[in-house]
Each structure stands twice: as structure tokens, then as C-alpha cells.
Amino acid sequence: MFGSDEFEGGVFSDQIDGGRASAALTITASGVKAVTSSGQDFFVRFRDCVLDMGGASGRMVFVRTPDRKLTVFCEDRRFPAAIELDGGLLVADQLAKVRGIRRGEQATWRMWLSVAAIVSGVCLVGGYYAALAGAKAAIHAVPVSVDNKIGDLALESMDLEGTPVDDKVIVGAVQEMLARLEPHSELKGLAFEVRVVDAPAVNAFCLPGGKIVVYTGLLRKATSAEQVAGVLSHEMAHAIKRHGLQQLTKSLGVVVAIEVMVGDVGGLVAMGVEFAKSAALTSYSRESETEADLVGVGMLHAAAIDPQALADFFAMLEEEGHDAPDAIAWLSTHPQHGVRIAAIRDQVANLGGQQYRPLAVDWDDVQQHLEQLNDEQVEVQ
Amino acid sequence: MEAITRNRPAFANVLVRLNPGEKIIAEADAMASMSASMEMRTRWSGGPIKAILKRIFGGESLFVNEFSSAVPAELVLTQGMPGDIECIELKGTTLFLQPGAFLACEPSIRLGLGWAGWASFMGGEGLFRLKVSGTGRVWFSAYGGIFTREVTDEYIVDTGHLVGYEPTIHIRVGLAGGIFSSFFGGEGLVTKVRGPGRIYMQSRNFSGLTAWMNAHI
């Protein structure tokens, strides 16, 4: 143990076997005394000593003779103050200088670390957006047949949670909407196909490739065929803009990174299909939803179907959603309704003149057939 | 305890002869062969928390092995890479070792982890370093040959060649030359060491080997 006026340190000297040794340092009024573990003692006078600071920690103090043949060193934080106390003016200037150099070095390091942190931050954020943009661009190079394949596989293995509807009036009405909209798809090669499923969910979705599922809950809720066409156009826009594939790429990017880290790349394909299934039922990014609105309204307009119907349907769902928010699944996956209704109405107001034609669908008849479906179910029960 | 370093420098290994009551601590997986009478006890490298920190930041194993024998016995310790092994005797002094360099020590040596600083990190030498201190012998290994230098003022070492150094050595990272020559001359960042003190260097750089292999795969 070292006393309060004794410090743990060391000595460099040619007189020591090996040139260095650990030593107990004592500060006297005239200098620093060092006694090595083997009993050799050394003394450096304050009067002509040379001070320096460094070492692995950066705060080790070296006290040297002018000819540098003898150096004592100490890392104790109390050591500089102790030699300043006893050495007084003889060491004060030198100590101030070495402390200044150390502070300068620390400041330089802090500056470089800050610069490195800022540059890394910029690179990370920039890299993220560049990767996103890259993924988006790369999707255009992927043939549409891939979308169709993923959509087919996903639909085959999905539990649609309802019975398929084959009522000609109901299915025919939805197909009529599809027939009006499909020619205005900006992406060719998609195999659009619609299925009606009897379930109370107010929902519809479109898988990659154009496989659309509409639930009777949504058809019952709609007050006109145009409203359903509005929802279809929005869902078709997701397939046209390949949002499912984009989201898949983004998410699988993370999965691939994790799998590469743990050394297992198996199961990625299966994961892709699984992901497409869950993505169909969950929400896309806000950016994708806005884009789907924009493209959907464009398609409705081009197909001469009144796009206001989409905004009306949104507004109606929102109003009812306040009472039973969980019941309306489609609304829950399409947030920011107020903003979107306004955006759709704005877009419609700015569209050029178009003579809208009603859909060749008798909506009352469709509703009656939907009622009959209900009755059939009751009978079966 | 008698220890002889053989087959130096390329394929160095340490032959240790233990007498009853003597012990040696070795890095996990360092044992190449041993007498049947040798007892091996595995323990955390300085306690679980310290061991985990050493594993993450010091590049060392979670566990160390303690060898002892009730009768005179032999043990051969070696390292994974081709290279030399150096033995130094600490007399109440300290030595810092770069991640992965530690091979073995006598039980009287303390193994700790010291903050190496951002300079070391930027130079590719890691944020932490292994601190060996006390009184006794320490064996450390390197890739290639090991050579030492007494540094009085400033000296420059290419990153990846520094194996160990005394605590009186100050380390900072800098460019080998100007910006152009540093990066296009292939030297990039270098470690600038300032004495007084002794540094231990390895004649080969493992990063250099991996870069060469990558280029040929």
C-alpha cells in the first residue's frame, strides 16, 4: 500500500536491469524520489526537471532529468497537484503547458469524433434512402410474372375466413367494375381476377399480381356500385404500383441481413409468400396508400366512373367507424382518412372534364342477392 | 515451472513442465497436448462479467484453463495462427496486449480489461485492450515474428502490427503521409506511438492476409 504522500509509479534508467522498474514515488520540497522494488533509489530535482504528459491513458506524468537519462513516471490523478504543491513555480509553467497540450488533444479528438458521428449519421440516413430508392427501382426490373406467382401461391394457401360466393349477380357486378377499370392499368401483364367472399368484414385486398378479394361485408356497406369500384381501383393501384413487392423487399432486406448473420438463408422464399399473405391484410406505408389513392382516382376518371364515390365511401366508413372501429377492417388499414378524403376531393376537382357513365350494375338487385345469401346461411344453420 | 518456447518463430509453441503444486493459466483452446496426469480446470476469465467484456471487447475467450498436476507433468501450448510466441516477466509492472494476443500466464498475473480509447478504435485496434499486471511470466503470441522496440520519442507502426506495449506508451492514430499518399500508397491510417517505453510488434498483419485471401477467392 502507498501512503497519502507516496505514489505508485516507475522509473526508466540505464542503471536498472532491463532499463525500467516499478517504484514508490515520494515528493519532497526539492524533487521526486523514486525507490524501486529492488531497493534502488533515484531522485529528479524540480529545479531542472522536464515535465511531460502521455502514456497509454494520456494522463501519465513523466518527470525527467534534462539529459533524459532518468525518468520517473506516475499515473495517479493526485500526482500533478502534488508536484505543483511542492515544486511551486519551478514546475507550474511546465505543468500548465502539458495540461494545455492534453486539453488541446482532447478537444481535437472531440471535434473529430463529432465530425465522424455526423458523417456516419448522414451516410446511414442517406444509405437508407438510397437503398429504398434502389429497391424501388430494382422492382421495375423484376418481371410481372413474379408478382403473379407470389400472388397465386399466397392466395392458394390463404384462409379467406369465409365461403366463396358464386352468385352470378354479385360476382357479375364486381367483374363489371373490374372490366371497366382494367384497361386503364398502367402496368400491363397483370392477371386481374376478383373473388367475392361471404364474410361480415368490411374489407377488400389485392395480392401482388392482381388477385383481388372483396368481402360481402364491404358490398353490403356500399350504397352504390361506384363506391365499390372506388375501393377496387385503390386496391388495383397497389398491385399496379407493386407496393406488395416493395414492402416485401424492404422487410426481407432486414431478414436477409439477420439470416446472413446467423448463417442460415433457407426458408426465404417461403417467407416471401407468408409475407405477401400478411401484407395483404395489414397496412401499407402511408406513402403507398397516398400513391394508391392517386392512381386509383386516375383510373376511375379514365374509366369514366365518378371518383367522388371513393371519397364518399371513405367519409361514410369514417362516420360509422367512430361507433364500431374494429368492425371496419378496411378502414383500420387505411389511416389518415380526413386528410385523404380532402386529397381525393382536391384531385377530383383538378381533373379535366369527363362525362362520367354509371356502371351497368343494378345495385339494388345486388343488395337483394346479398340479402338472399344471408337467408341461405340462416337456412343452412 | 520450466517453460521452453520451441519451433520459433514460424510455428512456436510452449512446452511447460509443471512440478506438483505449480499452476499455469492458459487461453481456452491453447492446449495442444498434455500428460495424462495433468488436471485442467476451466474458469471464467476473471469472473462472468469481466469475461464477457473481455470476450466482446478484448477479443479473448470467455474462459481460461488452469492446469496443475499432482506429479511432474508436461503441457504444450500453442496458438491458432502461424507465428512466434514471446515470454516476458512482469515485476509488479503492467503490459497492454492487443485483442487476441494473450496465450498464457502464471497464476500471480492479473488479467484485466483497459479502455484503449477512440484513437485505438479508429486505428482498427479495438476500443479495449487486455491489461496484464502483477509479478510473473506472461506468454503472448503473434502472427509472424515478434520484434520489440524501445521508443523514446515518436514512432510509427502500421495498424495491425502492434501486439503489445507498456503503459508509458501513448497511442494516437494519424495518416501515414499526406491524404493522397496515405490512401493511394496503401498505408492508410497508422498508429503513432510516443514513448518512453517498449512496444512489441508482429512482422505480419492478419488483416493483410484476409485482404489478400479475399482478393484471390
Describe this structure as you would to a colleague:
The complex is a heterodimer of chains A (381) and B (217). By secondary structure, chain A is an alpha+beta fold. Chain A has 13 helices and 11 strands. In chain A, strands 4-3-2-1-7-6-5 form a 7-stranded antiparallel beta sheet. Chain A has a 4-stranded mixed beta sheet with strand order 8-9-11-10, with helices on both faces. Chain A starts with 5 loop residues before the first strand and ends with a helix. Mean pLDDT of chain A is 82; it is low at 256-269. Chain B has 4 helices and 17 strands. In chain B, strands 3, 5, 6, 8, 9, 10, 11, 12, 14 and 17 form a 10-stranded antiparallel beta sheet that branches. The mean pLDDT of chain B is 86. The chains are: A alpha+beta (381), B alpha+beta (217). Chains A and B meet through strand 2 and helix 2 of A and strand 8, helix 2 and strand 15 of B.
Brief write-up:
Chain A has 381 residues and is α+β, with helices and mostly antiparallel strands.
Mind sketching the topology for me?
The complex is a heterodimer of chains A (381) and B (217).
Chain A: E1 6-13, E2 20-27, E3 31-36, E4 41-45, E5 50-54, E6 60-64, E7 70-74, H1 79-87, H2 89-141, H3 144-156, E8 163-164, H4 168-181, E9 193-198, E10 204-206, E11 211-215, H5 216-221, H6 225-240, H7 243-262, H8 268-281, H9 286-302, H10 308-321, H11 329-332, H12 337-350, H13 363-380
Helix pairs in contact in A: 1-2, 2-7, 3-8, 4-6, 6-9, 6-10, 7-8, 9-12, 10-12
Chain B: E1 2-6, E2 13-18, E3 23-27, E4 31-34, E5 38-44, H1 48-58, E6 63-69, E7 73-78, E8 85-97, E9 102-105, E10 109-115, H2 118-122, E11 128-141, E12 146-151, E13 154-158, E14 162-165, E15 170-175, H3 179-184, E16 189-194, E17 197-202, H4 206-216
Antiparallel strand pairs in B: 1-2, 2-7, 3-6, 3-9, 4-7, 5-6, 8-11, 8-14, 9-11, 10-11, 12-17, 13-16, 14-17, 15-16
